[in-house]
Design goal:
Rossmann fold; alpha/beta; 14 helices; 2 domains; globular; 6-stranded parallel beta sheet
Length: about 350
């Protein structure tokens, strides 16, 4: 059996951590010896700490004598882990892009160093590189230069293997005392600026249609902004802040509209999970969102940074029949397009290659 090292995270890292869990527990585990290289620390932009980080993980990688390492990159930590792997005895470095600093509209000196120096260097260190959505190829292709053959294309995240019919309904309605006549609009994930929460706040404050009830599931610095700017909506039980939850699947079962207002995105697991629970999707036209949702066919796609667009999208999804039509279409297409066989099959080809 080939030994495949998986760059894993002890702390909560969201999507990449879930992807690693799914790979390690998939049918591939019968074919490969998966070993998790668990990242338990970060080092910031301190040069001394960065050097210690690299040599610390080099030693850990060396002990395993792996055939291949799967690194969650790009970005700064991805670069440091790739550098550690390059200095180690692992035979092949495979980077999968779960995010890039090219997606962030920030022209600070630090961000420019990451974009124009760090990430290109990381790509040059890799033997193979893939993205989790086609949109991210616009980042990889220009940086490949003479290593174009190293780009193996897109390997999508897999569709959740959860039977929607087996999940009981009513938990969200019951726990929040929301009537069945209300339309529950939920946002799930990090409650931060990059997820478009300022525009969700503005839309909630402008929304005059009392049929809509808003639920925010997740943690982040914008929770306080919700409390400050939407105090009346919270008091009136039109907005609920649930914080971080470990029963998101059960909650999604009761959600009518999944609102995904991200300013940048890859191939979102949160969106796939909502589609799996047959929530009607209202998403921004960024990143891999439009590779999952097609406008007015399997959901509503809107421009980012617009509370008016959110309100218009909600109005388009007020009809239960429309929501059901879109949700069924999204579910059927995503289940086929992002099946385990298609996505993990590509990983298998990479791991098998000499």
């Amino acid at each position: 059996m080939k030994k495949i090292l998986l760059h894993d995270f002890q702390y909560n890292i969201g999507g990449p951590r879930t992807v690693i869990d799914r790979i390690a527990s998939s049918y591939l585990s019968k074919k490969y010896d998966f070993v998790r290289i668990v990242q338990t620390e970060t080092c910031g932009f301190n040069l001394i700490k960065a050097i210690r980080f690299v040599f610390h993980y080099k030693k850990i990688i060396d002990l395993e004598h792996g055939d291949c390492i799967y690194v969650c990159g790009l970005q700064y930590i991805g670069f440091l882990m790739t550098l550690a792997a390059k200095l180690s005895n692992v035979k092949k470095i495979f980077i999968v892009v779960h995010g890039s600093d090219w997606d962030v509209k920030d022209h600070s000196i630090r961000r420019c160093i990451l974009k124009y120096i760090i990430e290109p260097m990381e790509i040059r260190l890799a033997d193979k590189i893939a993205t989790v959505c086609d949109n991210e190829q616009h980042v990889v292709r220009p940086l490949m230069l003479a290593k174009k053959d190293a780009n193996v294309g897109t390997i999508y995240n897999t569709f959740p293997n959860i039977d929607e019919k087996s999940v009981p309904s009513g938990r969200l309605h019951g726990s929040l005392n929301i009537g069945n006549d209300k339309i529950i609009v939920a946002s799930v994930g990090r409650v931060v600026e990059r997820k478009g929460h300022q525009y969700i706040i503005d839309a909630i404050k402008q929304c005059k249609d009392t049929a809509f009830v808003f639920v925010i599931i997740g943690d982040g610095d914008y929770i306080e902004k919700y409390k400050d700017e939407c105090s009346e909506e919270i008091k009136g039980h039109r907005l609920f802040l649930l914080g971080k939850r470990n029963d998101v699947t059960d909650l999604l079962k009761d959600v009518d509209i999944f609102l995904f207002a991200s300013l940048n995105e890859n191939h979102s697991l949160a969106l796939l999970e909502a589609v799996n629970m047959k929530c009607a999707a209202l998403v921004t036209n960024v990143g891999g969102n439009t590779e999952i949702i097609k406008n007015k066919h399997s959901g509503i796609v809107i421009p980012p940074c617009s509370a008016d667009a959110i309100l218009s999208g909600l109005a388009s999804l007020k009809s239960e029949d429309i929501r059901t039509q879109y949700a069924e279409a999204a579910f059927n297409e995503a289940k086929m397009k992002f099946s385990e066989e298609k996505t993990l099959g590509k990983l298998e080809q990479i791991f098998d290659a000499d």
